[in-house]
């Protein structure tokens, strides 16, 4: 018979199960967005003489198209309406843009080459995104400084690209090229802000320091309190 007091009997220690929440999907979203936008922006600026964007179809359809859509679904699970909307929209946009420039789709040939109708159609395509991205820009104002730069840079990029295509349709090639380069420059700035946000999202999970992000949500709170 065991003479050990019952109070001294300790239950065996079971291995602790580490409870983890959902992974942060924003890092993949920002990385996919920034890498794809930077490649397109460098091409628009004529970097290294590259103007044919067919090689970027891989980024457009897979890294951006699939990557952003995957990130968007998990943002929806987390209940983030703004993040879900913009990630899903840009995932579909980049995937669709990749399809547009695929030679096998025959879209370019359907306009019989670089005709005025082709450039006007592409200008309308960019114009619609100017309108849609304007709402994204307004919604980004209380989310943080880098986000404002991203959507502000994108808005200017869409505007310059839209005008560039309309000008090209009118036959002003030199002016159109300059406007296209300006649009690429603003897109490049937006991509840098996207990489900054990628650093922010990754560092706060794996490193003992954080990349600072100016929080502008106080502006919205101040607005609400004054109302």
TrEMBL record:
InterPro entries linked to this entry: AceTr (IPR051633), Gpr1/Fun34/SatP-like (IPR000791)
Places the protein is found: Membrane
Transmembrane segments: 27-47, 54-74, 86-108, 120-142, 148-167, 179-198
GO cellular component: plasma membrane
Source organism: Trichoderma harzianum CBS 226.95
Superkingdom classification of source: Eukaryota
Family per record: Belongs to the acetate uptake transporter (AceTr) (TC 2.A.96) family.
GO molecular function annotations of the record: acetate transmembrane transporter activity
PANTHER family the UniProt entry points to: ACCUMULATION OF DYADS PROTEIN 2-RELATED, MARVEL DOMAIN-CONTAINING PROTEIN
Record's protein name: Uncharacterized protein
